[in-house]
Design brief:
Layout (H helix, E strand, L loop, with lengths): L1 E7 L10 H7 L2 E2 L2 E2 L2 E3 L5 H8 L5 E2 L1 H6 L3 H19 L1 E6 L8 H10 L4 E6 L4 H9 L9 E4 L14 E4 L5 H11 L7 E8 L2 E8 L13 E5 L11 H16 L5 H4 L3 H22 L6 H7 L10 H23 L4 H15 L1 H4 L7 H16 L15 H14 L9 H19 L4 H8 L4 H31 L4 H25 L9 H15 L1
Parallel strand pairs: 1-6, 1-7, 4-5, 4-6, 8-9
Antiparallel strand pairs: 2-3, 9-12, 10-11, 10-12
Helix pairs in contact: 4-5, 8-12, 10-12, 16-19, 17-19, 18-19, 20-21
Length: 537
């Protein structure tokens, strides 16, 4: 069987490499002389072997011509398997330990057996021992994270534990590494470069921001990043925002929260809507628009935070959604929170020329007119006045917004034409009555039980007509609200609150009488309803 020795070259000094490994790296195997291939010549042991007359070749030319790391590793493994087909025995030398951070050996083990090749792993001290000896640290004292400089997709540093980045073999690796570390660590965070040089390792401490500003790379180079100090309470607004970003990055990073790490823009969509509604409810409660004491006991006061900061808490939940989407965008390379802020500021400045420019606007009406003109200019000449109204809005809000857009271009009732808009409501109500005069409920049920395709079709058409006319009626009512200066959402919420308050009072009165609401007749329920209404007056 053909045989490849995967031989560890240790972190640097020959004195730390097992004698058996040194013999193999000189080409001396139990089967006789064998060719030696080193993954890289940029290792102290390569020069040591040359001084002792050993012959070897390196894979440095493959590194120079590789388009990406994965193709590089594939080419290197293919080279080894092809050479062992010719020679029968081959020695492959790699820095450190062959099974620690050495992707080529892992790939070789995966492919060798199917090619009739045996791979024998000859261990040696790894870069870990050398690095921690040079740093005079016990890594197990507080635990640490280790990662290859060719960072995995989506990897984020933890920050709360020390980090060791190994195999910083190329300057291009420093740029990406520095940017990812700066997402969590401050620019002046002190980091240590541990580099194998001849018979020892050197340690160079420098600020993180200077990581890519010097000749800091090599196959035996590692980076030690101490943990961040225990977080204190941020004092400035900027510090608080940065801290929030850091926490979300930590949730999405390696070792973070499985739920947060699994989210996407699409999966988070329902939560954005839900949190926005909870903010709206907190605003309603804060403004005193919540219901009576009974309502508070059920869903109001019970969910208030100590100190009455419910609105602040809910706004924080909504901000979390923004931060999560920004973090996902940063991981995908599409945008980040900085982009979100830049676009927001740019839009605010552009749409407020009376504040940031030379124009003037002395009234809110003038501001609104200019705002709409600027938005129209942004949309372009071929756009619709309805562009920008989200289709996902609840129907009541969408109707309000669409009618408002139509009003901006003059498609609306004359100002103050209350009679006209109320007449339209009455007209739509008459059309609902007319549509409802189609096949009755009994005929519709009979049709669905198989009374014939013609009857079923008539019932379906009747239902569609009623739905359409009821929609027109609701749209007309929203129009009436707008002309009369009433927010339909607020009006309907108030009605629902009143109904809920009265219904709870009816249930309470029924219980006091020793009765169950479900057992009362409709006349008895009406009597309770009227009684509750009289008590409110």
């Amino acid at each position: 069987m053909k045989l490849i020795y995967a031989v560890g070259m240790g972190p640097g000094p020959a004195a730390e490499v097992p004698a058996r490994n040194l013999r193999l790296l000189k080409g001396q195997t139990p089967r006789g002389r064998a060719p030696v291939i080193l993954r890289t010549s940029s290792h102290p042991l390569a020069a040591w072997l040359t001084r002792r007359g050993a012959r070897w070749e390196s894979c440095d030319t493959l590194y120079e011509g590789a388009g990406d790391f994965e193709s590089l590793y594939r080419d290197l493994v293919a080279l080894l398997l092809a050479r062992v087909e010719e020679t029968g025995v081959l020695v492959y030398g790699v820095p450190g330990h062959p099974l620690l951070g050495e992707r080529t050996v892992t790939m070789l083990l995966e492919q060798a057996s199917s090619r009739g090749v045996e791979v024998r792993v000859m261990g040696a001290p790894s870069f870990l021992e050398a690095a921690f000896t040079a740093l005079s640290l016990d890594p197990l004292a507080e635990g640490f994270e280790v990662v290859d400089a060719q960072l995995p997709p989506g990897w984020m540093p933890r920050g709360d534990k020390p980090l060791l980045v190994c195999q910083l073999w190329h300057p291009l690796l420093l740029g990406d590494l520095k940017l990812r570390l700066l997402d969590v660590y401050p620019p002046d965070h002190r980091v240590a470069l541990v580099k194998g040089v001849r018979e020892r390792e050197t340690v160079t401490w420098l600020p993180l921001v200077e990581l890519d500003r010097g000749p800091h790379t090599g196959p035996t180079t590692s980076l030690w990043v101490p943990a961040l100090p225990a977080p204190g309470l941020p004092t400035s607004l900027a510090q608080k925002v940065v801290r929030a970003v850091e926490v979300v990055a930590r949730l999405r990073g390696q070792g973070g929260c499985p739920w947060d790490r699994g989210q996407t823009h699409l999966s988070l969509r329902p939560y954005v809507i839900e949190e926005a509604y909870e903010v709206a409810e907190a605003i309603r409660q804060a403004s005193g628009a919540a219901g009576s004491a009974d309502d508070e006991a059920v869903g109001g006061a019970a969910c208030r935070s100590p100190g009455g900061d419910k609105l602040a808490e809910e706004l924080g939940d909504l901000l979390l959604q923004v931060l999560l989407h920004a973090q996902i965008g940063r991981e995908e390379g599409t945008f980040d929170l900085g982009t979100v802020c830049d676009l927001l500021v740019e839009k605010l400045v552009r749409r407020h020329p009376h504040v940031f420019g030379e124009t003037r606007a002395d009234t809110a009406q003038e501001v609104l007119r200019r705002w709409n003109a600027i938005k129209k200019e942004e949309r372009g000449e071929d756009s619709s006045a309805l562009d920008g109204v989200p289709a996902a809005l609840p129907a009541l809000q969408r109707a309000w917004r669409v009618q408002g857009r139509a009003r901006e271009v003059g498609f609306d009732w004359e100002p103050g034409d209350v009679d006209g808009v109320l007449a339209k409501v009455a007209e739509e109500l008459d059309e609902v009555r007319a549509a409802a005069r189609g096949p009755g409920a009994e005929e519709a049920r009979a049709a669905t039980r198989g009374a014939g395709e013609e009857e079923a079709s008539a019932a379906a058409m009747r239902d569609q007509a009623v739905e359409r006319e009821l929609g027109d009626l609701l749209f007309a009512v929203v129009n009436a609200c707008r002309v009369l200066g009433v927010d339909p959402e607020v009006a309907l919420q108030g009605t629902v609150d009143r109904f809920s308050r009265r219904f709870r009072a009816m249930e309470k009165m029924a219980r006091q009488a020793g009765k169950n609401m479900g057992d009362l007749s409709l006349e008895e329920m009406d009597s309770l309803w009227e009684s509750v209404k009289r008590k409110e007056k």
